[in-house]
Amino acid sequence: RKEVEQDPGPFNVPEGATVAFNCTYSNSASQSFFWYRQDCRKEPKLLMSVYSSGNEDGRFTAQLNRASQYISLLIRDSKLSDSATYLCVVWRISGYALNFGKGTSLLVTP
Amino acid sequence: GAVVSQHPSWVICKSGTSVKIECRSLDFQATTMFWYRQFPKQSLMLMATSNEGSKATYEQGVEKDKFLINHASLTLSTLTVTSAHPEDSSFYICSARDGLAGSPGSTDTQYFGPGTRLTVL
Fold first, then answer.
1. Residue A43 and residue B114: Cβ atoms within 8 Å?
2. Confidence band (pLDDT; 50, 70, 90) for B7?
3. Rounded mean pLDDT of chain A?
């Protein structure tokens, strides 16, 4: 089983739509979780950290379910500029490196 | 925020040559730097963890004699792909950990470089 698994998509949604991405992780001892955004041929950029209590940053909401080892990202009122690949990332237990999911591709259309 | 640079941003080379990629933390000291590789439509995969002043720790399946890592200072790590072959063509990305934990201004966050696209002919 892979460390981090995501539905690769692609998700094609119209502007203004709400879209949700899911992710599961295999190591129940994992403590830190993130969503990164990666544009084509660019480096990943931190979108937001994911906290147990759930957290929101503008149109983006992240949720963590430790019992199910499940992480989600909700994007409301999608913009064209949200088109990108969204990476679910789990901090390794030791060594500080990051385990990346394969990414979920989002295309927001006019 | 903190800035990490990589050089070169892209390189095309002939099979059998060696390529050196530099990763620099520009405004913070990075005790640990990481080297990742990303093939098309794949996730970033950790290749090695580079600690300043010590030998790098390689992930299983990554040949340490082929991918030479040097982390000689708190702001510079280099990755040398020796005797590159077409299957080494990939997007190589470094990240640097702002990890002088407890030091003023330290955030213990990882910052990614812009990546180096290597094409081996």
1. yes
2. very high
3. 92
Q: How confident is the model at residue A41 (pLDDT cuts 50, 70, 90)?
A: confident
Tell me how close the Cα of B82 comes to any Cα of chain A, in angstroms. Answer: 23
Nearest to B44 among A44, A45, A96 (CB): A44
Query: B19 pLDDT exceeds 50?
Result: yes
- The 10s digit of each residue's pLDDT in B34-52 is 999 999 888 899 999 998 8
Q: In which region does residue B16 sit, left (phi positive, over 0), alpha (psi from -120 to 50) or beta (all else)?
A: left
Cβ contact, residue pair A100, B45, below 8 Å: yes
DSSP B74: T
Which pLDDT does position B109 carry in this prediction?
74
Element (H, E) at A22: strand A19-25
A55: exposed, middle or buried (Cβ count in 10 Å: 0-12, 13-18, 19+): middle
A17: Cβ contacts below 8 Å, ≥ 6 apart: A78, A108
Residues B99, B31: contact at Cβ < 8 Å? yes
Whether the CA torsion A101, A60, A30, B104 is positive or negative: it is: positive
Contact check, Cβ <8 Å, B112/A44: yes
Q: Which pLDDT belongs to residue B106?
A: 47
Q: Which chain A residue lies closest to B90 (C-alpha atoms)?
A: A41
Neighboring chain A residues of B95 at a CB cutoff of 8 Å? 98
Structure tokens at B33: 């730097």
B57 touches chain A (CB under 8 A): yes
Contact B110 A96 (CB under 8 A): yes
Are A49 and A34 in contact by the 8 Å Cβ rule? The answer is: yes
